[in-house]
Amino acid sequence: MSRILCIALNPAIDISSEAETVRHTHKTRTHNQRQNPGGGGINVARVIAELGGHCELIYLSGGATGELLEAMLKPLNIRQVPLKIHDPVRIAYNVREISTNLEYRFVPEGPLVSEAELAPVFDLLEKTPAEYIIASGSLPRGVPEDTYARMAEIAERKNARFILDTSGDALQTTLASAKVFLVKPSLGELESFVGRKVGHEDAGAAAQEIIRRGVAQFIAVTLGSDGAILVDAERIHRVPAIEVPVQSAVGAGDSFVAAMAWSLAEGHEIGDAFRFGLAAGAATVMTSGTDLCRRADVLSLYETNKG
């Protein structure tokens, strides 16, 4: 039995490559192409498997790209439940410009998904014995903004811990109407929810405002070069950034969430899980393109920086 269930409503095939210079109008010749199964929930499941954990992955899969996604996921040590939809899975593209070391990321909105196609996800949620349910990534077109809120309500009724990593209206609607165990907003999303500008120094206090409304037990906010904060109703735990050579930031947030959930499922307390999350995010930054963290790097960074 998997203690962790990952949900990917808007998965992707992630393609990454490099170019010396990216210019408009002219052809941009790329090289070093790689492709990975991606999208929030799928990246989370990939990292949990890389860390040696076991999870179940529910994802929507349609079209020829959906068949390719399923083939890419098949070799991984993940229990998978692809649910068929009509529209094809999206393809996201990332290019690193070598001359500037800047990344250009092109992320389609995804397929149009009907309520009937979404319904099996909720049926499986009602039946899952998982102790941790992770909803990560954007919502595809046609899916109601309260979808994650409905999932959170099911998790609460089943005494499962619901972990949310999304943005925009999906995040706003969920936090306005449901309770979650852990949420990982960006600083911008935190600002949007509390309705004012928030700096790195007062991000902890702003997060506590949300917690005191009773909608989340923990909030984790990454702050780039200033590290990250973990907040509950009683404390603000700030940890400095782990300095590593930067290759690509793609998937760092997903890795952070995955490592936290894996650590919690392994029985570690929330502070240790938070540091595992930081280590996994930093380890992912060390890899190129859409590659994610390596277990050895995560463990090494955690041991070096656990303090």
TrEMBL record:
Q: Where is the Carbohydrate kinase PfkB domain?
A: 13-293
GO MF entry, a single one:
6-phosphofructokinase activity
Indicate yes or no for the key word Endoplasmic reticulum.
Answer: no
Q: Which domain of life is it from?
A: Bacteria
| SUPFAM superfamilies (alphabetical) | Ribokinase-like (SSF53613)
Does the keyword Transferase belong to this entry?
Answer: yes
Any one GO CC term of the record: cytosol
Q: Which UniProt keywords apply?
A: ATP-binding, Kinase, Nucleotide-binding, Transferase
What NCBIfam families does its record include? Answer: 1-PFK
User: Family assignment?
Assistant: Belongs to the carbohydrate kinase PfkB family.
Name of the molecule in the record:
Phosphofructokinase
Q: Which organism is it from?
A: Rhizobium terricola
